[in-house]
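Render this sequence as a predicted structure.
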Amino acid sequence: MSEIIARPFPVINQFYAPYYRGLKERKILIQCCTACGHIQWPPRDLCFECHANQLSWTEVPQAGKVYTYSVYYRAFHPWFKQHLPMAAVVADLGEGVRILGNFLGNVEEIVCEMEVKAVFEDVNDEITLLHWEKA
């Protein structure tokens, strides 16, 4: 009998909770400074631009281009062993917003500047993950 290996999940802290709530609603949300209008990712407690703490969340496009990527042929956790090869893609959504997600599809087809679109995976009642696929 084979051992069942639990899937690892992200730790959702105070900074990322609104992002993951957005994913549940099929939206990609990032921080926006209400003082200067700067949008930023990853989330933090202060604006990268003006250092104000007046941050809200705004929706960004669900499509972009591959900025960079990495293909994995070795599992960094036992759960991923059955999913190899796999790729992590950083998608550029414009205005300096770049968000990481797994790539769904043939990892050998990935090239920088390739157009991708968001795919949302509900893995349980609390967590939805963002993935990218070829547009």
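Summary. The two ends are 40 Å apart (CA to CA). The chain has one helix and eight strands.
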